[in-house]
Amino acid sequence: MLRFRSLFLVLFWVAQVSAAQSSDYSYVIEDDWITLPDGVRLSVTYYKPEAKQAGETFPVLLEMLPYRKDDISKTWAHPYYDYFARQGLALAKVDVRGTGSSEGIAPTREYSDTEITDAIDVIASLAGQSWSNGNVGMWGISWGGFNAIQVALRNPPQLKAIIAAHASDDLYMNDVHYTDGVFGLDEYVLSINHMMGFMQSPDYTIDDNYFANRFDREPWLFNYLRHNQDGEFWREGSLKHQFDKVQVPMFLINGLLDGYRDTAVNSFESLDTPIRAVVGPWPHAWPNSATPGPSWEWREEATQWWKHWLADSHNDNSFNGQNFRFFLRSGNPPGTSLEDVAGTWYDSSWPLPSDEMDNLMLYPNSDGLLTESVAGQSQADVLELNSTIGHELGEWWGELLPDMRSVDAHSLVYDGAPLAEALQLVGKPQVTLRVSTNSEKANWLVRLEDVAPNGEVTAITGASLNGQLRFSSLTPQPLPKGEQVSLEVPLHFTTWTFKAGHRVRLAISNGLFPMAWPSPEPLSSTLTINSEASWLQLPLWEPEITGNTINMPSAVASASLDPQLASFEAVPGVQSRNEVITNKLDDSVSIIRESAVGYRMRNPNHANDPIRIHTLRSTEHKTYKNDPANTEYRARAEYRLLPRTGSENEIHYVTEINLTSDTEVFDLNITRTLSEGDQILRQKNWQETLPRGIH
Q1: What is the CB neighbour count within 10 angstroms for residue 91?
Q2: What's the average model confidence in pLDDT over 140-162?
């Protein structure tokens, strides 16, 4: 059995920082351990400013992730850590227990109780360091934002404020597993289920301890499929259901092209604590480097935020209240490669003042029209489930999207008249549908779109509804076959300007694949039109009344990590692939994605012998138009640990996920394989048949 014989050594080096201003701090980067009450040690990387005067101490910012800070994600964080350290803020980047360089047993789920409890213990440890002033802030994007919010729900005394970017307030209805209550699988499912079983860095020792604590631990997807309904499993970590517990000041950053963009407005409507929120035009990325832009140098304001709450420099009273800023999009054409979108920044409150708002009611009518009034007798439009459409929408309600005409051709579509003047939209559009269906299980996926005079169609926002959750996500009820029911579908928060000459479009389908796992039966549904029972409500804003336009500072250049410490490299013989294959013989569609990236890291044990890991991922979603129950997800991820001496073989760690369904069950099969050269060192298989439940 292979062992790498080197020990984990403390790496200490002085950062060679060229100060942009004379007031900037120099800092050191140091790898160390934080020992928890049960004796488990968590790996931590410190960015420590160097004191300018005797006895100077610093606030500490904590980011805690399972994303392997010392190899797979080593290059990601440095531009942000460098920026804050130069401002006199100390930082601690910690691997979650049982992941990356940390000791312990891998957790059984995201944001486990153990993880949040560990974070509270880490905060106490950081507050007690000799170079700390005793005040800690927690921050991060995505996972780091999620667990910052969940730690804030417990209000540890040393935690004085948080910053959470692109993080959800509802782990069931607004996360990647059951978005809007509809099951789906994206590439993240593969990445995280694979990453959790890899060896501890930087030694990558393969022994019984590794197998028991990581490799042999059940992949998380089984746990999530067992909990396919809303309940305490999801709600214990969801801000939405316990706003009253929050006492910590919160700074929230959301993106209009991100799946978690409702968190800011939901929090504003429910929190009494100091809160700042910025909703910009970004996808799932920090605003200084997001595409599309315009970029925003959020780190400048974040530094002021941290110093206000953590350094006792309460010099900005605006931080003590509530502040909401948003980017009103001017209306952009469809396309996946836009560098910037046009629009205007506004500083306001939330909800927006009532005298600035007006709700426009539109009704789907005959001949595909969307009108401001109902004329004639009610009718019914028929919608047949086509489970193979929708790859253009991606894997969640976010990102830049192409022209929607190919999807709309298989949907119910209702268009308003060309607009005589522009309309500004800010908020959550509301949709109510009066429907009937021939199945107890059905999903509705609703989109708000902009139709340009040249026919191009831009997706603005949308949402899904699992019909069984029409009353409550906690109490599912089967749809009554053949009976009409009303479905309320609140669309996700958005901003948009419909230009004069453009048309408002409402598009409705029963499937969008692979975002939504298809309903199990061939499905026919009806929508009542020419009736006040089905409608679209647009929250229109009139900024010319009191709208306060503002300028947001553009991003400054970021320091990159010394390539001697970490860099990317090509993976030989592998090319990215993104392909949709339609098979007319069996009416199936397959969405195939393949990618690879290589990482090179300085080896703390052997300076001239770098650690090199190549990562490869492939996913295939497949479904059938006439047999939607027969849907498949097949995925494979591989880490190749390249040899560090001429006598060693490559170590290959592989995870394969196969999920299939029929009308009643999901069959999940996951295999992990660890090999050295041609020899299999360990293979572990998990297989379970799980009821589909409400999906």
Answers
A1: 28
A2: 98
| DSSP secondary structure string for all residues of 393-438 | GTTSS-S----SHHHHTTSEEEEPPPPSS-EEEEE--EEEEEEEES
Q: 221, 193 in Cβ contact below 8 A? A: yes
pLDDT above 50: residue 149: yes
pTM of structure? 0.94
Residue 39 maps to a domain: yes
* CA 632 – CA 489 distance, rounded (Å): 28
pLDDT band with cut points at 50, 70 and 90 for residue 646: low
Residue holding tokens 């297989």? 687
Q: Are residues 389 and 322 located together in one domain of the fold?
A: no
Measure the CA angle with vertex 432, ends 428 and 434; round to 5°.
Answer: 165
| pLDDT tens per residue, range 593-630 | 999 999 999 988 777 789 999 999 999 999 999 999 99
Cα–Cα distance measured from residue 290 to residue 279, given in angstroms and rounded to the nearest whole number: 13
Asked if residue 559 is part of any domain, the answer here is no
- How many separate domains does the chain show? 3
Cα dihedral across residues 347, 351, 355, 361: positive or negative? positive
What is the residue range of 528's domain?
Answer: 355-546
Residues 413 and 455 in one domain: yes
For residue 96, what are the CA distances in angstroms to 45, 150, 156, 202?
Answer: 12, 15, 18, 15
Among the listed residues 573, 469, 495, the one whose alpha carbon sits nearest the alpha carbon of residue 228:
469
Counting every residue written for the chain, the total comes to 695
Q: What is the CATH number of the domain that holds 26?
A: 3.40.50.1820
Q: What is the mean pLDDT of residues 565-588?
A: 93
SS3 608: coil
* Residue 624: closest CA among 386, 345, 326, 289: 386
Residue 16, pLDDT > 50, answer no
Residues 231-250, buried b or exposed e (16+ Cβ, 10 A)?
eeebbebbbbbebeebebbb
Predicted confidence (pLDDT) per residue in 370-402, tens digit: 999 998 889 999 999 999 999 999 999 989 999
Q: What is the pLDDT of residues 177-222, one digit of tens each?
A: 999 999 999 889 999 999 999 999 999 999 999 999 999 999 999 9
Query: 62: buried, middle or exposed (CB in 10 Å: 19+, 13-18, 0-12)?
Result: buried
Who's near 467: CB < 8 A, 6+ residues apart?
Answer: 435, 437, 441, 442, 443, 444, 479, 485, 487
Strand positions, DSSP E, 96-241: 132-141, 159-165, 178-179, 182-183
The answer to whether 297 and 305 are in contact (CB under 8 A) is no
